[in-house]
Amino acid sequence: MYLIGENIHIVSEKVKAALMERDASFFQNLAAAQVEAGAQALDLNLGPRKKDWEEVFPWIVQTVEAAVDVPLSLDSTNIRGIEAGLQAITKAQPIINSTSAEEERLEEVPLLAKRYDARLVALTMGKSGIPVSADERVNIAIEKLIPRMVEIDYPVSDLIIDPLVLTVSGCQEYCPEAIEAVRTVLVAWDPPPAVSVGLSNVSNAVPSEDRPLINRVYCAMLMGAGLQMMIANPFEEELMEVVRVVEARDASTPLGRLYVAIADRITAMEEPSIDDVDLDDAEQLKVWKTVQILLNKVIYAEGYLHSSGQQGSA
């Protein structure tokens, strides 16, 4: 799994305050800690920065590159800000996050990626928003996003399709469709582009105590569909362990065996089965209940882990 660390994000109050104060040591320590925890690239999400983009994007790039050597992903809707950041890159091949199929961005952003030899995240959404179905999202990729790259002679090997993970809290019907979108994009073009997701989006607006479980169960399911790249939190140790367990097929513990079984079922285009679950094991039962909400089999509600109506779902 190629993990892009998500923790330098403007929604964090600590990041917001450190950016306001231009606290270089804060960002350098956070960058180094993410890499130490397993991140192979770092997402820098500073928001649009409409007033200070010309100064802040080069500053954050220079600051973080002083601490780490991994690729930096410039995550913003501000194209001029992204370009200012790209001009400051001196180390690894950068990533632009992102374009979409919206006409203006699809016209401009891929050309920027080509000019600066950057990888490019492309979202499967257009002017009308994010479609629910996997097929519609895949169609955006193969009818609009990839053809635009071919048109400008941008290498598809540098393209990263993001089929867009949305929260189980309010957008639950999107969750199983994103799994199938990952699977299908990986076989819909030859050679296929990379596919990545923002994993933590699946648990947005979920109570904080439940977010890590939802993230790691969804991760196992997406890995079963072939996912090999994601923006995620490398400090979630149990998430990183699930990645290791699924990749190594480590079934040496009961919980590890369940995560491998979940991934294997998804790989085989089957639904995870209650037959793989020891319902007397409280941790396995939590995982099973989480699978059910992520497959949209049981309606998500806060406190879903404490409900008794899911055990027999299949």
Architecture overview:
This protein is an alpha/beta fold and 314 residues long. The protein has one domain: TIM Barrel. It is globular, with a radius of gyration of 20 Å. It has eleven helices and nine strands. Helix 6 links the parallel strand 5 and strand 6. Helix content is 45%, strand content 12%. Helix 6 packs across helix 7 (174-185). The longest helix has 18 residues, at 134-151. The protein has helices spanning 13-20, 24-37, 53-65, 79-88, 103-115, 134-151, 174-185, 211-224, 237-248, 254-267, 282-294; strands at 2-9, 41-45, 72-75, 95-99, 119-123, 159-162, 194-195, 197-198, 229-232. Strands 7-6-5-4-3-2-1-9-8 form a nine-stranded parallel β-sheet. The mean pLDDT is 96.
Q: Averaged pLDDT, please? A: 96
Shape: globular
What structural class is derived from the secondary structure elements?
alpha/beta
Number of strands: 9
The helix count comes to 11
- Per CATH, the class reads Alpha Beta
